[in-house]
Amino acid sequence: MMRRTLADIILDHPRHSVGAGDLILMSDVDEIPSREALQLARVCAIPPVLHLSMKNYVYSFEFPLDNDGYWRAKLVTFGATPEFGYNHVRASDELLLHAGWHCSWCFRSIQEFQIKMTVRAAIRDYLLMC
Fold first, then answer.
1. How far apart are CA 54 and CA 31, in angstroms?
2. Can you give the pLDDT at residue 45?
3. Among 54, 66, 112, 114, which residue has the fewest nearby CB atoms (within 10 Å)?
4. Residue 75: its pLDDT value, please?
């Protein structure tokens, strides 16, 4: 529901003017693209959907995961695909390597961790009631 709302804001809000050819970054808040990756996408011809391969961390940037990277964040060229909507699925095989960082469950304090867990439990309970 939240992702559909984000797409509605992008498409329907009168203050936003999104036009054909504009790049839209689809990522969660813990997926941090590098400045260089975004600048490269602005000046180079990129495919309609370009996934960003990010170095993956858990709990802190001190703990990298030993895997092939994290690819869910992506740049979408508005108007280049028939449908537009925020999603977190693989939409192409095009991948820009070393494009940023994903830090799952990274917080500055235990209180921030507790807030996330409380909100997550409330959302789960709400969805179970629907």
1. 8
2. 92
3. 66
4. 93
